[in-house]
Design brief:
Elements: E1 2-7, E2 17-22, E3 27-32, E4 38-40, E5 47-55, E6 62-69, E7 79-81, E8 89-92, E9 107-110, H1 112-117, H2 126-129, E10 135-136, E11 140-141, E12 150-153, E13 156-157, E14 183-189, E15 204-209, E16 217-226, E17 233-234, E18 237-238, E19 245-258, E20 262-276, E21 281-283, E22 291-295, H3 296-310, E23 321-336, E24 341-356, E25 373-374, E26 380-397, E27 401-418, E28 425-430, E29 433-439, E30 448-464, E31 467-483, E32 499-500, H4 504-508, H5 511-530, E33 536-552, E34 557-569, H6 573-583, E35 600-601, E36 607-608, E37 621-631, E38 638-648, H7 654-661, E39 668-671, E40 679-690, E41 696-714, E42 722-723, E43 731-732, E44 740-741, E45 744-745, E46 748-754, E47 758-769, E48 775-787, H8 796-801, E49 816-817, E50 824-836, E51 841-852, E52 856-859, E53 877-878, H9 881-886, H10 893-909, H11 911-915, E54 919-920, E55 926-927, E56 931-943, E57 949-957, H12 959-963, E58 971-972, E59 978-979, E60 982-987, E61 990-995, E62 1004-1005, E63 1014-1022
Parallel strand pairs: 1-7, 6-8, 12-15, 21-22, 25-29, 28-32, 39-46, 52-59
Antiparallel strand pairs: 1-4, 2-3, 2-5, 5-6, 9-14, 10-11, 12-13, 14-15, 16-19, 16-63, 17-18, 19-20, 20-23, 23-24, 24-26, 26-27, 27-30, 28-29, 30-31, 31-33, 33-34, 34-37, 35-36, 37-38, 38-40, 40-41, 41-46, 41-47, 42-43, 44-45, 47-48, 48-49, 48-50, 50-51, 51-56, 52-55, 53-54, 56-57, 57-63, 58-62, ...
């Protein structure tokens, strides 16, 4: 809170006393005005209500009530005192989260009322952050990768720093690490020009936890749903419900330990859920949108062969259940040491697991979907355990200085329990595309990850008249112990789409595969006995210095300008690489697997040698920023705001971990010595207008330019010198174009940078609250996002393989559409509360709606058509009918004829493919169809005579699908961002194609809960 105190003639009053009291807790903050009448009260509790008393000898005092503080916003209180100190004047005022002097870029504030009333079944923060039109499913904001967001709890880092599978803690198990009942407010900031906010090039998402007050308050709750409370039809298809059951229950309690002095808040919640593992059925000759192309007879045959030959159980392939359990808790203490010093300490934990199928897209598609099915025992259980703590000391030194010190520590322990007994990965293909997945989940072989995070931040403020100066430093240290054994049961995980299903019996019964099975079982026994599973230890960090000035140039204009320096830290990681090289036996010529003398080629095809012990340079990255806020009329009815500057972020540190874990020549992963942390230049111009009718309209234009974007190249490639034969004449890599070892090609996957990408967002929003309590809000975002390379996964080879490559040169980044975010997104909220029965009863209705253009995808081959080492990254050549007639297909003459006819029909039915006959498909140029979603929450309150409340809730997700099975249905071309209708193999430059003629259309209905209605009922007692 800040402002200025003047007399009735506008002259500043030096030495006026300003006391702000947080009424529920009695927490007081006090300052006196400096010589120009200004005051600042920093580091106050969010929420309220507050009462502020202003007094000065010889003048009437002023008392302001009903003030509520929003997260990340400064409340401006300017007051004129009248002569003659007699009666204290009382005024009730409210803060505006949008029309305030500290707002510069696009942001969203979610208060506790919205957290309580808006519809949710998962009780996740994402059900609320989706209120900004800039959001997209999966955690993307403004068209950026979700891994580039910064999540914080009470201002302290609360990310999943290693970045496996999810950006948020507990995300791998779909668990919320902190209960909604422990959160008071959430803020999403896209372009804050405050240099104290950092660690992101996407969005900053900060949640503030609740605190106790002088009154004992609490709640107990339970939410429930089962299989009878979900939809069974998606358009004309009846979907197997499975045996869904879900229960979430818990409590929260807060109150005083010492009145006005020491407070506590505690929360505990648990969730128990069981759900269907796959929504697709095997093909038994019956039609249906949820019937896969995979024949039940083939699945049964493979399963029986493995049981009979190796006594290996695959488990079922349909109608199996997956479970998910979690429990979490939070305890917080707030201590008002005195009026000038406040200390808070928070500790929270999460213990969660979730059963999952094999990874759907890593190292080739795995399903389960319409093209590929897998067995239950090819899945695994992921376990997430988290313990974290934060201590926060806020101090004020007179009226001119303040300090905020924060220290935090967190531990993350992630492990996997595979469903399979030790066994090789086993894939079968049909028509060149992966068909059946069996065997052990390749990423779950003794897979464990221990993470430890230490953080320290100190911000010192100086209040000098119109200037608020901030100087600060922060240190983040991340330690990782990762046991990842991708080839622990053999290298078959890398063997393309798999063995032809037609020869399954011969292959399973072969001596070669029998040896692989024996080796896998021996590896399990020996590694457990000798403690020789892989272990990669990595220590990374970031240190920052920063300073800024917030300058109140006049009553209308506020400027914020500052400079931040971020320095990457690698600590003893080079030593850890050497330890891992030793685990692989040392140098190749000494019998090991490390071969630093292999001749590789950089992205410009220049010869280069690569060393695993060479880490990126520790060079500082500078982030200058400037922001402004201009009150056009001086009454906060029209506001122009914006800014421009650099933002330096973090990234999933598993990308550096790849270098530590993989020094062996056969899967070599390194980081470019010139690699830099992600950095963007972001410019935001916004305007807010409050009309006399009560409508508040906002517009934001945001342009983001990549300075250091991330990509992976294969430095085992030179420039391609060969040509494919046939209609598709793309360049191909010959043996002479590949790095060599032992007479064959080898790869080196290198994380490096490019600066090609950019995003443009146009966001429009309007909202109004009527006198009767009706609230309406609507918004729209247009997104044009481009990048040079789309980094969507964690393993270096997959980052390369799943990024559609330039047809002319696989190592050259393509500036093309980004797969993150939605090109068009409309959102809306409607809420209304009815109070009746003399105040005993209240009914609250809230509705959320969105209308969204689907995500992007690319058409690529299944197979390595250009010999670049990637089997998924080659963009499809779209042949004309005449060219199809000349193409070579697999199988007998009749089979080839059927494939040609089927491919012609497939191309003709797809608008994008049919428009580009004779050309190459473009990177992420295709869009899944539009979809809509309507979610409803009904809250029924009964107020007891003692003022406690019993509340019944009903949440309905995808209300449209409840009304009609044709509404609210999503359609997808692929669940992996890559549509692969055509398989290919190449010999001596001649391609042989495979097409499954059962593929009749591009899009299939999504039969998951995204396309079906769900209902959840809840009961809550609040006191």
């Amino acid at each position: 809170m800040n402002g200025s105190i003047t007399d009735d003639k506008g002259e500043p009053l030096f030495g006026a006393t300003v006391v702000a009291k947080h009424v529920p807790s009695g927490t007081q903050y006090g300052v006196v005005t400096i010589n120009d009448g200004r005051f600042t009260i920093p580091n106050m509790r969010v929420g309220g209500p507050y009462e502020v008393v202003i007094s000065y000898l010889g003048f009437k005092g002023e008392k302001y009530e009903g003030i509520n503080l929003q997260l990340g916003q400064k409340f401006v209180l300017n007051s004129k005192l009248k002569s003659d100190a007699s009666t204290l004047q009382e005024v009730v005022i409210k803060a505006d989260p949008i029309l305030n002097s500290t707002r510069t870029g696009a942001a969203l504030n979610i208060d506790n009322t919205q957290l309580q009333t808006l519809p949710t079944i998962s009780r996740s923060a994402s059900d609320y952050t989706r209120l900004t039109p800039l959001a997209a499913e999966g955690g993307s904001f403004g068209g950026r990768n979700s891994q580039y967001n910064n999540y914080s709890l009470d201002g302290a880092i609360f990310n999943n720093p290693f970045g496996l599978d999810a950006a948020t803690p507990g995300g791998q198990t779909d668990a919320q690490a902190v209960s909604l009942d422990a959160i008071d407010q959430i803020q999403v900031s896209i372009a804050p020009y405050d240099v104290t906010q950092a660690g992101f090039t996407g969005a900053s998402i900060n949640a503030v936890t609740k605190s106790g007050t002088n009154k004992f308050t609490g709640t107990a709750f339970a939410f429930f749903r089962n299989k009878s409370m979900i939809g069974i039809k998606v358009k004309d298809t009846e979907v197997t419900r499975g045996d869904l059951s879900a229960l979430q229950t818990g409590f929260a309690l807060g109150g005083p330990i010492i009145k006005d002095k020491l407070f506590f808040f505690a929360n505990f919640e648990l969730e128990r859920r069981s759900d269907l593992g796959s929504y697709f059925l095997a093909n038994r000759g019956t039609a249906g949108d949820n019937v896969s192309r995979v024949l039940a007879a083939d699945l049964n045959n493979v399963s029986n062969l493995l049981r009979q030959t190796y006594n290996y159980e695959t488990g079922p392939y349909e109608n199996y259940k997956h479970n998910a359990n979690n429990q979490k808790g939070l305890f917080k203490l707030d201590w008002n040491i005195n009026q000038n010093h406040k200390l808070s300490a928070t500790v929270n934990f999460l213990d969660a697991f979730k059963d999952k199928p094999a990874n759907p897209s890593a190292i080739g598609r795995r399903g389960p979907d319409a093209i590929t099915l897998q067995y239950y025992n090819s899945g695994y259980r992921i376990n997430n355990k988290i313990l974290s703590g934060i201590v926060d000391l806020k101090s004020q030194f007179g009226s001119k200085f303040s300090n905020k010190l924060q220290v935090g520590f967190a531990e993350f322990h992630d492990t996997r329990d595979p469903f399979s007994a030790p066994f090789p990965v086993l894939n079968f293909a049909k028509d060149g595309v992966r068909y059946i997945v069996a065997g052990h989940e390749p990423f779950s072989i003794n897979n464990r990850l221990d993470q430890r995070v230490f953080q320290f931040t100190d911000n010192f403020n100086i209040y000098a008249g119109k200037h608020t100066l901030t100087f600060g430093t922060s240190l983040e240290r991340f330690s990782f112990d990762n046991s990842f054994n991708l080839t622990g049961y053999g290298a078959r995980v890398f063997f393309g789409p798999g063995e032809p299903i037609e020869t399954a019996a011969n292959f399973i019964n072969s001596a070669g595969f029998a040896k692989e099975v024996a080796d896998a079982r021996t590896a399990f026994t020996n590694n457990n006995a000798n403690g020789t599973w892989a272990l990669a230890q990595t220590t990374l960090g970031q240190w920052a210095l920063y300073g800024q000035d917030e300058f109140s140039a006049n009553d209308k204009l506020t400027l914020t300008y500052g400079l931040r320096l971020d320095m990457p830290l690698y600590f003893n990681t080079a030593q850890r690489v050497e330890e891992n090289i030793a685990r692989y036996g040392g140098l190749l010529d000494k019998g090991g697997a490390y071969a630093p003398d292999i001749q590789y080629y950089n992205g410009d095809a220049q010869p280069v040698k690569l060393s695993s012990t060479t880490l990126p340079k520790q060079k500082p990255l500078f982030s200058p920023r400037i922001g402004f806020n201009y009150d056009v009329k001086g009454d906060r009815s029209k506001q122009l705001r914006g800014g421009s500057g650099l933002f330096t972020g973090r990234f999933p540190f598993v990308w550096i971990g790849n270098q530590v874990a993989n020094p062996a020549f056969f899967f070599y992963c390194v980081t470019d010595p010139n690699f830099k942390f992600p950095q963007v230049w972001r410019t935001n111009l916004g305007y807010d207008h409050k009309f006399k009718s009560g409508w508040l309209v906002s517009a934001d234009v945001i342009y983001t330019k990549d300075v250091n974007a991330v990509m992976v190249q294969n430095w085992g490639l030179k420039t391609p010198s060969g040509r494919l034969q046939g209609a598709d004449t793309r360049p191909i890599y010959l043996a002479a174009d590949r790095a060599q070892i032992f007479g064959g090609a080898t790869n080196a996957y290198v994380f490096t940078n490019n600066n090609l990408g950019s995003t443009f967002n146009l966001q429009l929003q309007a909202e109004k609250t009527w006198a009767n309590g009706l609230f309406v809000k609507g918004g729209y975002n247009f997104l044009d996002a481009k990048d040079g390379a789309s980094t969507t996964v964690e393993i270096s080879s997959d980052v390369y393989d799943l990024n559609p490559a330039d047809v002319q040169n696989s190592n050259r980044p393509i500036l093309g559409p980004s797969p993150f975010g939605n090109r068009h997104r409309f959102v809306g909220v409607l809420a209304k509360k009815y109070v009746y029965g003399g105040g005993k009863w209240a009914t609250n209705f809230s509705l959320f709606a969105e209308y969204v253009q689907g995500n992007r995808y690319s058409f690529t081959y299944s197979g390595d058509i250009n010999n670049d080492g990637g089997t998924n990254n080659d963009l499809l050549f779209i042949p004309t009918d005449a060219q199809i007639d000349q193409m070579k297909f697999s199988g007998a003459a009749a089979e080839q004829s059927a494939q040609r006819s089927g491919l012609k029909s497939y191309i003709a039915q797809d608008d994008y493919l049919s428009s580009r006959r004779g050309q190459y498909a473009e990177k992420f140029a295709s869009l899944n169809p539009w979809y809509s979603k309507w979610d409803l929450r009904i809250l029924q309150d009964y107020n007891l005579p003692n003022k406690n409340v019993i509340q019944l809730s009903v949440d309905v997700l995808n209300l449209g699908n409840l009304i009609s099975p044709n509404w609210g249905v999503r359609q997808l071309a692929s669940s992996t961002r890559l549509a692969q209708p055509l398989g290919v193999s190449v010999e001596n430059g001649v391609p042989t194609y495979s097409f499954d003629a059962s593929q009749k259309q591009t899009y299939f209905n999504d039969f998951t809960l995204n396309s079906r209605w769900q209902i959840q009922v809840g009961l809550r007692y609040r006191f």
